[in-house]
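Homework help board

Subject: predicted structure for assignment chain

Our instructor gave us this sequence and asked us to write out the predicted structure in token form, then describe one feature. I got the tokens but I'm not sure how to describe them. Can anyone check?
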Amino acid sequence: MIDPTQNGTLLPLMEDFYTLQGEGAHTGKAAYFLRVGGCDVGCYWCDVKESWNPKLHPLTSVDEIVRRTLDHPAKTVVLTGGEPLMYNLEPLCSGLRKQGMAIHLETSGSHPFSGSFDWICLSPKKKSPPLEGIYRKANELKVIVFDETDYEWAEENAGMVKHECELFLQPEWSRMKEVMPGIIGYVMQHPRWKVSLQTHKYLHIP
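My token output:
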């Protein structure tokens, strides 16, 4: 059977919503979020595990997805998941670009790159590391800190992105109290890094 998502004109859309970006370099910016279902990375601390199985989410045409983004005043769209790069993102990016949208991508980088973006947030995962080609494309490197071993992982990845890439350490939400003092200390000793917080959870917004 032919996979209907192969050419990128249909995507398993888990949810789409208008909110504020809660993390990283664009924190506080109004944006329309498109969450695509499907992820084979499987982080045990993932807070959107319901996104993993793409079969649970309706295949939605790119034309319909683009149409929905036009119902809101912000001109920034954030494509997240799941893992968006599991799919061919060229048709979606082309449709959004024609409507004058600024397109942001949040990815683990574990699948071949497709699409055209104004901002790429690379959030690497140890279980399925990024493919080499994604590093030079990243505008932002966001490493989730679960324990002390993640600092070495963060520096390993920071050594592969371009110099102007912004670097963020973000506490894993369930271990915020345990890891936050260490993150603060690390950033103070290594000021190229910044702290990212999931501010949307504090604000009780999507």
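Reply (TA_rk): Your tokens look well-formed. For the description, you could write something like this. Helices lie at 62-69, 90-98, 149-158, 176-189, 199-203. That's the kind of observation they're looking for.
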